[in-house]
Amino acid sequence: MYGSFIVLTKKEKIDMLQDTVQFADTMPHHPKEFRIPHYALPDTFGRMEDEEVAARIIEHCKQKGEWCRIELDPFLSGIELEYLAIRQDCNTLDELLEYNRRSKAVYKKNMFLYRLKMATTLGMYRFFGNRPVTPNVKTVPKHYLPFTGAIFGIRHVHEGIRGLVQKDAIQIDVAQGKHWIVPTSKLLEPLSRFRVS
User: Fold this and answer.
1) Which distant-in-sequence residues (6+ apart) come within 8 Å of 106 by Cβ?
2) What pLDDT digit, counting tens, does each position of 87-141 carry?
3) Domain count of the chain?
4) Is 2 within a domain?
5) In terms of pTM, does the model score above 0.90?
6) Is 3 inside any structural domain?
7) Quick one: three-class SS letters along 123-170?
8) Which H/E stretch holds residue 178?
């Protein structure tokens, strides 16, 4: 594997096509038939962790256009990168808000001192001192965090995978020295209300 390119042998390609055909036979509905909220399947599997992992698996299969197995390590790495991006966005937002708070506090203090000097000099201070300049407050972008438990760390996702394996909604297979998430038909049983016909 070099970068994001995977070089497959002819046998591996045939095996993957056979896996896809097997999924098509075992899964009752196509993944594009489901409309799922981003990272959420409320009231389906009983635990938020399980519901989020199930939503991510279905979303991944929708992007591929068919039911497929998902390599576990890149799946977890993508979620971990997303977690780091969310944390970085939060840190940047916190820094921006702190800068705005400090700027406003300094302006209020300077304005108070200016008004005090104006009152004590009966307005004469206007000729000797400058009025404080309003602060240059930076605009805060609207920040919509995704509704995900991954903001608490990758353990949340591990718990969800473990929960789905215990409920037989997914299986973890080992092939070619890698771990793969394999969705089963039990993954779709509680999702009837998210299906669009």
Assistant:
1) 135
2) 777 778 888 889 999 999 999 999 999 989 888 888 887 787 788 888 888 887 7
3) 1
4) no
5) no
6) no
7) CHHHHCCCCCCCCCCCCCCCCCCCCCHHHHCCHHHHHHHHHHHHCCCE
8) strand 178-183
